[in-house]
Automatic annotation (TrEMBL):
It holds the Pfam family UPF0004. It comes from Symbiodinium necroappetens. Residues 186-455 form the Radical SAM core domain. One of its GO terms (molecular function) is tRNA-2-methylthio-N(6)-dimethylallyladenosine(37) synthase activity. CDD domains: Radical_SAM. PROSITE patterns: MTTASE_N (PS51449), MTTASE_RADICAL (PS01278), RADICAL_SAM (PS51918), TRAM (PS50926). This is MiaB protein. Residues 4-120 form the MTTase N-terminal domain. Gene3D superfamilies: Methylthiotransferase, N-terminal domain (3.40.50.12160), tm_1862 like domain (3.80.30.20). The keyword Membrane does not apply. NCBIfam families: MiaB/RimO family radical SAM methylthiotransferase.
Length: 558
């Protein structure tokens, strides 16, 4: 369906950012044009998140707003993609009839077909509108409404993926989406995400992800390594591997694997159109440690390799050894604890104790924390406050955990009950909103102090900074100076390249740049007049840190 403009807005996690980038690439290849202006688009897509109610609320408010526009422009096509589409399913269309297309995260390869269908249907509905009005009058029936309903196009995996024997085949067609990735050497900021695992099998009792993303499937290692090489060839310097539990990565070549009790043959799976060279010989297994080593060794153009999110169980020394011995793998782990109380962890079904968690952090530090060599290990965490039955003593234990873990940053969330999860159905959400809010603020204050201490300890040091582009401050300044005309989000991450270019084109005087250290700390510095800001983007440069606040280091290029 060429010559249509599409606005694609992304909510939620990095997995969604990557999905949006792939969707944007796929639609562009088919002749759609992406725009950063929702009002100018023929097709408006929201790639949504369901992890907390707040994430869904944002989308509900977008859908409320767009209803008014659609009343004026009946040809407009509105699509909800991602986890909220999967979680809410067709209920979403009942609640928001403005939605024409629903597409779950495991069905995104079908999106072009769905959109094509929706665009044509809306066109014919608009063309027939006059007749329908007559019909409605004649029969006293709401023909328009029923025609509207039949016009909806939906692709959701439902619960079938966990039972279906065609799981491998479903994975294959989705695999095509990742394989189709086209990376333009010019339009990126030097950094990219690469998926290694889809879905999740952990079923933490509070979490919607296993219900929206389906069963855990590991991508073939050759596909991942090839993708990293292609990205490196296009000038990508930093790759972040993505998965809900990345350290569980395990690809069994030439044997059967069990996915949630369903035995899936992986032998001889072929991927049409791919360049893969998998040899399914015997019982060969690629572990997460093997995968990291392969990417590190076979794609040396990737100067920074990191991965999120690690699960605090089953993290072997083999991975820590590969990290220690591979200079281009970052000394950074995002490894959420969720709670500092063993009772709460058990109710969450996390499968580890606080003692085991802290033992892992000690082990990781033993292998990887080398501040004297300029390579400290940086940790990041996630915590949930106010989970079902959390007492003040449990909460104090979470504070204690933060003090021991010393994360460089920690995301802290108030528990949000999610329909469809075990906790929603079986455990009472009995901590008041006021207590959740208070605990959230108290925990943030504890973390604030720890983060500040870590930032301050780096003042005076020289950090190697991977430059991502102009700083947030510089973007806002450019946008304000240009009356908001610079569009800051179009598809996904790949558009950062053009955003940087647009800001730099308009900048005058020294430009403030931003980047990240190996340990993922944010660094801001001014580009000296003698250097080209564009030339710095996507490179690793030394910066001497002059001062620091909680989340940002400020320095000068050396
Ligand atoms: N796979 C990752 C997390 C993915 S979801 C892991 O297991 O670590 C990202 C974060 O959202 C989680 O770490 C958790 O802290 C938070 N989260 C998930 N469900 C939530 C809920 N129902 N309420 C509040 N926070 C939640
Ligand atoms: Fe959710 Fe737990 Fe899976 Fe993470 S590991 S995505 S928190 S179910
Ligand atoms: Fe949200 Fe789905 Fe990611 S629920 S956090 S977009 S996996």
């Amino acid at each position: 369906m060429p010559d249509r403009t599409v606005y694609l807005e992304t909510f939620g996690c990095q997995m969604n950012e990557l999905d949006s980038e792939l969707v944007a690439g796929q639609l562009t290849a088919l002749g759609y044009r992406l725009t950063g202006e929702a009002d100018a688009a023929d097709v408006v897509l929201y790639n949504t998140c369901s992890v907390r109610d707040l994430a869904e609320q944002k989308v509900r408010s977008r859908l409320g707003e767009i209803r008014l526009r659609k009343a004026e422009e009946p040809g407009l096509v509105v699509g909800v993609l991602g986890c909220m589409a999967e979680r809410d399913g067709e209920d979403l269309i009942r609640k928001f009839p403005v939605v024409d297309v629903l597409c779950g995260p495991a069905e995104l390869d079908k999106l072009p077909g769905l959109l094509d269908n929706a665009v044509r249907t809306r066109e014919s509905l608009v063309a027939d509108a006059g007749d329908e009005a007559v019909l409605t009058k004649k029969n006293g029936r709401t023909v328009h409404a029923s025609a509207e309903r039949s016009a909806k196009v939906v692709a959701l995996q439902g619960d079938s993926s966990r039972r279906s024997s065609t799981l491998a085949a479903a994975g294959d067609s989705l695999e095509m989406l990742d394989l189709s990735r086209a990376v333009s050497p010019h339009d990126h900021d030097g950094s990219a995400y690469v998926r290694i695992t889809r879905g999740c099998n952990k079923f933490c009792t509070y979490c919607v992800v296993p219900h929206t993303r389906g069963a855990e499937i590991h991508r073939p290692p050759d596909h991942i390594v090839d993708e990293c090489k292609r990205l490196a060839d296009a000038g990508i310097v930093e790759v972040t591997l993505l998965g809900q539990t990345v350290n569980h990565y395990r690809f069994e070549h030439g044997s059967s694997v069990s996915v949630s009790g369903v035995t899936q043959p992986q032998k001889g799976r072929t991927y049409k159109g791919s360049h893969h060279r998998d040899v399914y010989a015997g019982e060969r297994v690629t572990t997460f440690a093997d995968l990291l080593k392969r990417i590190h060794d076979e794609a040396p153009g990737i100067q920074r390799l990191r991965f999120v999110t690690s699960y605090p169980r089953d993290f072997g020394n083999d991975v820590l050894e590969v990290m220690r011995d591979s200079p281009r793998i970052c000394r950074y782990l995002h490894i959420p604890a969720q709670s500092g109380s063993n009772e709460v962890l058990a109710r969450m079904n996390r499968g580890y104790t606080v003692e085991e968690y802290l033992e892992f952090l000690d082990r990781a530090r033993h292998f990887l924390d080398e501040p004297e060599k300029g390579r400290p290990l940086m940790l990041a965490g996630d915590m949930i406050v106010g989970f079902c039955g959390e007492t003040e003593a449990d909460f104090e234990a979470s504070k204690e955990l933060l003090r021991k873990a010393r994360y460089k940053n920690c995301f802290i969330f108030k528990y949000s009950p999610r329909p469809g999860t075990t906790a929603y159905d079986r455990i009472a959400d009995d901590v008041s909103e006021a207590d959740k809010r208070r605990r959230c603020n108290e925990l943030l204050a504890v973390q604030h102090e720890i983060s500040h201490g870590i930032s301050e300890s780096l003042v005076g040091s020289v950090q190697h900074v991977f430059v991502q582009g102009v700083s947030e401050y510089e973007r806002k300044r450019a946008k304000a100076a240009d009356n908001g005309m610079i569009s800051l989000t179009v598809g996904g991450r790949s558009d950062l390249g053009s955003t940087n270019a647009a800001v730099l084109e308009r900048a005058s005087g020294p430009v403030q740049m931003t980047g990240r250290t190996d340990g993922d700390l944010i660094v801001v510095f001014d580009c000296p007049e003698s250097r080209s800001a564009t030339g710095l983007i996507g490179r690793v440069v030394p910066v001497r840190i002059a001062r620091a606040n909680v989340l940002t280091l400020f320095g000068e290029l050396v």
